[in-house]
């Protein structure tokens, strides 16, 4: 029995009044009663209306962009200056004729949105930049940089640029469709952290990509778990993405860079950026991969600096004394430089900051305690734990001049002696298939 009654109520046909029955299973008397209750010409007319209505509904595609109310760009953009994209919309590079069919919203960021699109049965990720001039300029810089990097060398740990074009006043950048990011991987572990052998694999690839970038005098400026993606769902190879904040080494930036949890202390203190800020972020990512949660969970730049100083020992006091923002954050007491109290900082800056978050780790050596709490660690991991903590200390060196470089990292025992235990490989394969 094929039932159409659920949609008929809007046309005045009651649920029990009309159904398409299998004639062999229904008595003539029942069919006669139905015919008496609902004249056949009325039923036929209303069926036709229903089918026409259903066809009308089916051609209205589901909107992928939210909010979806038309506001700017002659009704093409929403209130956030994002291009409104619907399911199966065709995004066209008019110069080349390449057509990408929108299938899914993958994510929303500061600069725009990313969609999964299909072209010739292949999946791609298209980053559509907000229709804001400053963001367009930044997007063009990102395109220029990735083209430059790909031209120098198609590095296996750097995202590839497939296509770029202007569509309905929006810059569109086409990338290969990658897998999940490190934040999503940690979420799958319920934020319990990863095994050391898996952290080794990720770090060696991440640092190799940064070594290549730094050798060309470029700084990524936004290394964090969300910007490190696996190429597929086997969780083996990663690629670094999102070069929208990247900058040449000799270009001074007059605004905060790096996401707060991964921001190097010298950036907070107002010093010029160097490649060392990426290595600080790597240290923060490495600790997070192990712990399952961010090492420094500041609620503001002041709170972030406070948490860093609560964990990291400063051997060079001149970094504080000569800081361009010394007067913002510090006072001098008995020949020592100490961080201001939160209330004093708030009053001077006319700010009302959130309450400070919790600092779970107060010394990097405490990672050993976290390590020993787990009964899931293998013998191999126990043997490499000391090297891992040593690498973290070198990555989270407060003085950027003394901080370990990407090239030096690759020679560190934790990464230099990189190898998988075959049992760990098999266990990992089963876990992520």
Please provide a written account of the structure.
The protein is an alpha+beta fold and 433 residues long. The chain folds into 3 domains: 5-58, no CATH class; 90-151 and 160-176, Phosphorylase Kinase, domain 1 (2-Layer Sandwich); 182-432, Transferase(Phosphotransferase) domain 1 (Transferase(Phosphotransferase), domain 1, Orthogonal Bundle), CATH 1.10.510. Helix content is 39%, strand content 14%. The chain contains 16 helices and 12 strands. The chain has helices at 28-37, 40-58, 133-152, 182-188, 196-215, 265-268, 276-291, 301-311, 318-321, 326-329, 342-349, 366-373, 379-395, 406-410, 413-416, 422-432; strands at residues 90-92, 99-108, 112-119, 122-129, 163-167, 170-176, 218-219, 228-230, 238-240, 247-248, 330-333, 336-339. The strands form 4 sheets. Strands 1-2-3-4-6-5 form a 6-stranded antiparallel beta sheet, with helices on one face. Strands 7-10 form a two-stranded antiparallel sheet. Strands 8-9 form a two-stranded antiparallel ribbon. Helix 5 runs antiparallel to helix 7 and helix 7 runs antiparallel to helix 13. The longest helix is centred in the N-terminal third of the chain and has 20 residues, at 133-152.
Any chance you could write out the topology, listing elements then pairs?
Elements: H1 28-37, H2 40-58, E1 90-92, E2 99-108, E3 112-119, E4 122-129, H3 133-152, E5 163-167, E6 170-176, H4 182-188, H5 196-215, E7 218-219, E8 228-230, E9 238-240, E10 247-248, H6 265-268, H7 276-291, H8 301-311, H9 318-321, H10 326-329, E11 330-333, E12 336-339, H11 342-349, H12 366-373, H13 379-395, H14 406-410, H15 413-416, H16 422-432
Helix pairs in contact: 5-7, 7-13
GO molecular function, one term: protein serine/threonine kinase activity
Pfam families: Pkinase
Protein name: Protein kinase domain-containing protein
């Amino acid at each position: 029995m094929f039932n159409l009654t659920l949609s008929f109520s809007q046309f005045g046909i009651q649920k029990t009044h009309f159904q398409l029955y299998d004639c062999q299973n229904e008595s003539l008397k029942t069919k006669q009663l139905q015919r008496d209750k609902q004249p056949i010409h009325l039923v036929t007319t209303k069926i036709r209306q229903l089918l026409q209505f259903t066809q009308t509904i089916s051609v209205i595609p589901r909107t992928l962009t939210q909010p979806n109310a038309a506001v700017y760009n002659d009704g093409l953009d929403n209130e956030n200056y994002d291009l409104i994209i619907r399911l199966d919309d065709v995004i066209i590079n008019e110069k080349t004729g390449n057509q990408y069919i929108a299938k899914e919203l993958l994510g929303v960021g500061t600069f725009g949105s990313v969609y999964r699109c299909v072209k010739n049965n292949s999946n791609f990720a298209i980053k559509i930049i907000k229709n804001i001039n400053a963001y367009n300029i930044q997007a063009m810089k990102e395109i220029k940089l990735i083209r430059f990097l790909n031209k120098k060398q198609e590095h296996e740990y750097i995202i590839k640029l497939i296509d770029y074009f202007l569509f309905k006043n929006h810059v569109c950048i086409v990338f290969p469709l990658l897998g999940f990011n490190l934040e999503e991987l940690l979420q799958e572990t319920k934020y319990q952290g990863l095994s050391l052998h898996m952290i080794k694999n990720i770090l060696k690839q991440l640092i190799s990509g940064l070594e290549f970038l730094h050798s060309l005098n470029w700084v990524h400026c936004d290394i964090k778990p969300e910007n490190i993606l696996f190429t597929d769902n086997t969780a083996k190879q990663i690629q670094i993405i999102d070069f929208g904040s990247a900058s040449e080494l000799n270009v001074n930036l007059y605004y905060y860079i790096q996401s707060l949890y991964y921001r190097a202390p010298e950036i907070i203190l107002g010093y010029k950026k160097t490649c060392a800020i990426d290595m600080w972020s790597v240290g923060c990512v490495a600790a997070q991969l192990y712990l399952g949660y961010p090492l420094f969970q500041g609620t503001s730049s002041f709170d972030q600096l406070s948490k860093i100083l609560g964990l990291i020992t400063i051997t060079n006091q001149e970094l504080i004394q000569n800081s361009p923002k010394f007067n913002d954050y510090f006072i001098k007491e008995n020949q020592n430089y100490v961080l201001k109290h939160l209330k004093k900082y708030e009053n001077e800056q006319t700010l009302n900051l959130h309450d400070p978050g919790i600092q779970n780790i107060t010394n990097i050596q405490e990672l050993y305690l976290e390590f020993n709490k787990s009964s899931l660690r293998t013998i191999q991991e126990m043997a490499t734990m000391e090297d891992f903590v040593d690498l973290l200390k070198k990555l989270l060196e407060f003085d950027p001049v003394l901080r370990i470089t990407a090239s030096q990292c690759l020679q560190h025992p934790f990464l230099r002696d990189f190898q998988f235990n075959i049992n760990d490989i098999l266990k990992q394969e089963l876990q992520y298939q």
